[in-house]
Amino acid sequence: MRLSRSFLPTLKENPAEAQITSHRLMLRAGMIRQTSAGIYAWLPAGLRVLENIAGIVRDEQDAAGAQEVLMPTMQSAELWKRSGRYDDYGPEMLRIRDRHERDMLFGPTNEEMITDIFGQVVKSYKELPQVLYQIQWKFRDEVRPRFGVMRGREFYMKDGYSFDLDTASAVDTYRRMMLAYLRTFQRLGVRAIPMRADTGPIGGELSHEFLILAPTGESGVFFDSALEDQDWLAENVDINDRASLEKFFTRMTSFYAATDEMHDKKAWAEVPADRQREGRGIEVGHIFNFGRKYTQSMDIAVSGPDGAPLYPEMGSYGIGVSRLVAAIIEASHDENGIIWPESVAPFKAVIINLKNGDAQCDALCDQLYGAAPKALLYDDRAERAGAKFADADLMGHPWQLIVGPRGAKEGKVEVKNRRTGERTEETLEGALALIAKLQG
Ligand code: ATP
Ligand code: MG
After folding, report:
1. CATH architecture of the domain covering 3-337
2. Closest Cα to atom 6, ligand 1: which residue?
3. Which atom of ligand 1 approaches the CA of 218 most closely?
4. Disulfide check for 354: which of 233, 302, 404, 418 has CB 3.0–4.6 Å away?
């Protein structure tokens, strides 16, 4: 994309309404604009990041055997009356009446809808297990929407739902999802730690929240530092092998990790003092097994081996895709701006032309840009160098390819790594090889 013709409205000043770094940087980097309280429009750079995150989430869900569907945002109140949640959900649910006076709602989550669809399709235990997911907008009328897309009212979520014949199979599915989540966050370039979460009236141990550590996180967290090194925890696990998954899960959950609400002082005291870590975290995912709650209340049964009706066991698995955009920034920035992990960056690299209109600079930049116009941002504006450098750091492109008159004369490009600040001088071939690698 050519910056001179793009819709990337960067701001020099900090917007007054933004209280936390990620919100400030998303506004300043031209990623989003607020349209009303807790509701945002995604501009080109923001949308690219959102879609990149969704793409990785999708990839890992597919690898775990989940199948993608797309359900509507608008739901009928009737569905929610069947599970009994229509009255229980409270003011976070946005309730709407259509022209025929029918009660509708903008979905805050989709357990009821997916259970109903499942029931229309699956009739026999032989068709189990099934794991379905979607990536779709949700609406929750939060009392205090804040911190930009971190706690919005309309937000983008991956929500998955599983149906299993029995508890053993449901546990298997749960473990598979936990591994898929770790792999997802690893690929997103962040470390999210799974922590035991409250299972409410259903009980049991199968609920975990995934939190990214950041000082601005809304939850206090306590965890064993062994969980920081997830490479070894998730190493050599075969996602399709039950015994391998069990070993992984047992190891992962043997280390202490809890949010404020679930903190157990006695268990905490048993963690070796040099491994105790306390801090704050941002919830970016939540996995939950809730047994037969919805299949039973909505009377969705399949026929079992002996012909008798059986209520499948369910689980649900959420990832806050739009919240992740902000959470990644909270975990990866410096005083100059965002530092995007390569996997989610809106552009893999920016080409900075230091002297627009100089024949040699323009020619060299065109050659670089032509190699991958979709993956690159070309700063071809008639701005001074300082402004270009500042915007490049602000927007957080992993690589900067800097072309000035002196280098251009010798066919040389200065390459800067945004994260390390390291600079090297490359030939045109060297720079093109880097671009090819980034596109990989
Ligand atoms: P929270 O405790 O932060 O309110 P939740 O427990 O209500 O979240 P879930 O129902 O578990 O959220 O939803 C799954 C995921 O969706 C969460 O882990 C979070 O990442 C994301 N999410 C939930 N509410 C919001 C929101 N208002 N804005 C952005 N993302 C959200
Ligand atoms: Mg939650």
Report:
1. 2-Layer Sandwich (3.30)
2. 286
3. 3
4. 404
